[in-house]
Structure formats: C-alpha cells, structure tokens
Amino acid sequence: MTKPAYKRVLLKLSGEALMGDDAYGINRATIERMVADVAEVAKLGVELAIVIGGGNIFRGVAPGAQGMDRATADYMGMLATVMNSLALADAMRQVGITARVMSAISIEQVVEPYVRPKALQYLEEDKIVIFAAGTGNPFFTTDTAAALRGSEIGAEIVLKATKVDGVYSADPNKDPTATRYSHITFDEAITKHLQVMDATAFALCRDQKLPIKVFSIIKPGALKRVILGEDEGTLVHV
Ligand SMILES: Nc1ncnc2c1ncn2[C@@H]1O[C@H](COP(=O)(O)OP(=O)(O)OP(=O)(O)O)[C@@H](O)[C@H]1O
Ligand SMILES: O=c1ccn([C@@H]2O[C@H](COP(=O)(O)O)[C@@H](O)[C@H]2O)c(=O)[nH]1
C-alpha cells in the first residue's frame, strides 16, 4: 500500500469552493466530490482534522455586510462555517465516514463544543474532526483557525485546499502574468503581502514551525498527491 508522508494533518477546505458553479451556498456534487477526496486519503491511515471556511455563505468583510457592525458580521461568518461543517459531516456520514463537529462557539444543541483533549481522542480513534466556528473570535479568519487548531493538535502540516493551485506572485484570478512558487518562506509571503492566506495565519505557522501546503481542491487527485508527499501546489516553510 502507498504510504502517506504524514501521520496527522490539518486540512483547511475552502468554503468558497463549496459553491461549485453556483452563485451561493453548497453545491451537492461539489461537496460529494470533496468528501470522496477526503475518503480516499482517510483510507491511507492519515489522521485528519478539518477546518472549513464560510465564504460560500457569509464573510464579515463581504459587500453584503457593508454598514454592519464588524464583530456582528464576523459572528455571522463563523455561524456560516458551522453550517458548512454540519453539511460536510453529514455528507461524510452518507459514505460511511465517522466525523465529529466541534464548535469554537457554544451552540450545544447543534454541535459539541471544542475541547482539545476530546479532539485528540477522536483523532486517535481515527475519527475525522471538523473544527467549526473558526477561532470563535471576530476579526480572524478560518485560515488562522486552521493554523491555531493545527498547532494545538500537533499536526505536521496545514493543507490549504483552495480554488487556486498554489501561491502566486500576485492573485492569479486578477493578474494573468502572475507566476506560481513551488516553495516560499513565511517571511517572503508576509513581506510580499501575498493574499492567498492572511498574515496572522502565516505568522502563527511560522512561529510554530508548522509548514503549509497550498493546493487546488478542484484539481482531481491533488489532495492524495499532497498526502503522499508528491510534487503538488506550493510549500510555505520557515
Ligand atoms: N498571491 C496569491 N496567490 C494565490 N492566490 C491568491 C493570491 N492572492 C490572492 N489570492 C486569492 O486567494 C484566494 C484563496 O483564498 P481565500 O481565503 O479567499 O479563499 P478560500 O480559503 O479558498 O475560501 P474560504 O475563505 O471561503 O475558505 C484564491 O482564490 C485567489 O484568488
Ligand atoms: O476565527 C474566525 C473565523 C471566521 N470568522 C468570520 O467568518 C467568515 C468566514 O470565514 P472565512 O475564513 O472568510 O471563510 C470570515 O470572513 C469572518 O467574518 C471570524 O470572525 N473569526
């Protein structure tokens, strides 16, 4: 059997990618394809914790939140990630994968709260843990939540599965001349203001010496290639 390059990873799934070709929300075929990708790597024996974004539903800084109190808008964004987490766990259940959703915001009738030792126990039991509601604090993002939870659970790497296939010299969706890095240091990414992740997430991972791999969740087989340590996406390192 092919051997994974990591024992435990924190996978950050793009909320925005969940829309597929729709304008908003969760596209059924897209979530099923994401779950199929996750199922394939779970079979390899790697312990998986997941943070999912909320950009397909609400972001505190989106035009739809203009004029709103920023903290209130951010709490709405965090609730959006709870919805995505529940949808993801349910889609996993439908294909026989056991997942546990843990929320950073207390919402106990819906999901259990985040308790670190419990999360570690689930991972050791080979359950997939989905961390919902980001960090639980406004003014942050789910990328920072991925860096934070990844550090807390002792993940070997944060895998940012997004709509682009790596870190570019500029946003490739805006600048067609942008070129992709195969690897880049945290300091370079921060100094060059590369916006594929926020600077807080980069800085936390740098300080914790937790590498990040940025790759496409849309490209078939990319997640498995990353897990097997093959050349895919961009590695951000110390
Ligand atoms: N230098 C860059 N290299 C690559 N992508 C970049 C860069 N600068 C900006 N981007 C943009 O960053 C986006 C990915 O980050 P973003 O946080 O917006 O999305 P996500 O994490 O996929 O979604 P969500 O926040 O909903 O989970 C890409 O789709 C790309 O358009
Ligand atoms: O720790 C966090 C995480 C998220 N938010 C808010 O949620 C939305 C959605 O998250 P994305 O990372 O953009 O997908 C985000 O825009 C924030 O408004 C938060 O406040 N704190």
Automatic annotation (TrEMBL):
Compartment(s): Cytoplasm
Keywords: ATP-binding, Cytoplasm, Kinase, Nucleotide-binding, Pyrimidine biosynthesis, Transferase
Sample GO molecular function, one term: ATP binding
UniProt binding sites for ATP: K12, L13, S14, G15, G55, R59, T162, Y168, D171
Enzyme class: transferase
Record domain Aspartate/glutamate/uridylate kinase: where: 7-216
Enzyme Commission (EC) number: 2.7.4.22
Activity modulation comment: Inhibited by UTP.
Family matches, as InterPro entries: AceGlu_kinase-like_sf, Asp/Glu/Uridylate_kinase, Uridylate_kinase, Uridylate_kinase_bac
GO cellular component terms attached to this protein's record: cytosol
Role of this protein: Catalyzes the reversible phosphorylation of UMP to UDP.
Self-association and partners: Homohexamer.
The protein's name: Uridylate kinase
Natural source organism: Collimonas fungivorans (strain Ter331)
